[in-house]
Amino acid sequence: MISRYYLLCLFLTLFLFTNAQIKLLPDSVMATTDTASLFHIKPRKFASAAFVFGTNMGVWAFDRLVLDADFSRINIKTISNNVKTGFVWDEDMFTTNLFAHPYHGGLYFNSARSNGLSFWGSAPYVAGGSLMWEYCMENESPSINDFFATSVGGLCLGEITYRISDLLIDERTVGFERFCREFLSTVISPINGFNRLFSGRMKKTAVSRNNSIIRPVTLFYATIGHRIMADNLKKKQDVVNTVSYDLGLYYGNSFDNDNDHPYDAFTLKMSGNFFNNQPIIHRFSALGQLYSRNISKKESKNHFVWGVFQHFNFYQSNAEIDHQMIYPYKISEAAAVGPGLMFRHDFSSKIRLYNTNFVSLILLGGSQTDHYSTEKRDYNMGSGFSTKTNWDLEFGNKGRLFLAVEDYRIYSWIGSKIPNSSAYVPNSQGDIGNANLMVSRVGFQVKVKKHFLISNEMSYIYRKSYYKYYEQKTVKHIVQENKISIGYVF
Residue 378: which residues within 8 A CB-CB, separation 6 or more? Predict the structure, then answer.
């Protein structure tokens, strides 16, 4: 898992690079790339497959030779047993199953994407890499939840990391700025970085940027500040004060008529903590357009866009009551897709009101449980749906007010039917029942001078879990949070 110090160093590195006036993004966030200056990579299917194979072999070698992990002891017999057993629900940790596996899928995706294949053309390589790993690279039964998380979630994280990596590339630059760009680009998308290294493009200089994708309207911000959480459970309370960070990226314009490809517009938000007992990543949210159509009337102040969107959301939080560590909420939609409607009203050229509404089908999700517990698992898996609505009132580049409400429903069907049984249930989604997590947040961001940002966000998180075979069928949990931060708009 990413260490707190790694993330802190990356955060400070971005800040220092900016203060050193190294322009990691274009002079204007509105800048675009001339189509003629794009670097077109000829699709290389064999190289893509070789990179997927190499990725799996590299990860397996690390697990076997460095970590000496038991699951990495494989041979022909273990592969044969995996084929005979077929898919099961596994017992890995929440972060491993619902964040690390989608990231791993992103590596497969970029093995193809960085070799010239399209978004949809790269998808089979993700599924193929996942099947190879599940059946051949472990001596444990192949996991159905890993396959969905890797194959579907990997498309989302893979395309986002590829586009951000490409955003940093500028082959006109030399020296320290060139090193910074290539370094950060490789950290964000290792496979794309290795591809550039092997092809010689990492050291090549040119008269144009040589990006692979037309550069869209892009806005990135990073903040750091104070976060306070009040956790209420069983009439007791845990109050936590910690240092919190937020990273946000707005890529592309959802109302642009030229959004012809998946993820021509997407948003990415990541939050976490540096100290205390809180997780280093407590929120990771991504929303990408797979298909969209502008249905606005010409010369109108009202603009409408409908489309199909991919969702990836990951939430987790910690608390300590009576010297016992508990987990107020965990929620994930690692593999989710659904329709959405976006609206914008232009009061003037600078003041605009945005409203977005989404419904997603969750093929694979995770939710906090109060009962099911093994050595690694303390959460339920399942499927369900989510709804989201957002309101934003923007005042040009000076600031914004926002209100967001998200509602997640995760249903688990495979588990123990014995009331109050603590016995281990193999091949289980967890407790039979369902979980509802509602996340509401309201706040503002104000831009000070040219790049500095002040923000405040209040959140209300409500969890309601229903257990079919327990005496206490319903458990409710409330967490209230407030964050005040200062930051920088890149």
Answer: 94, 327, 368, 369, 372
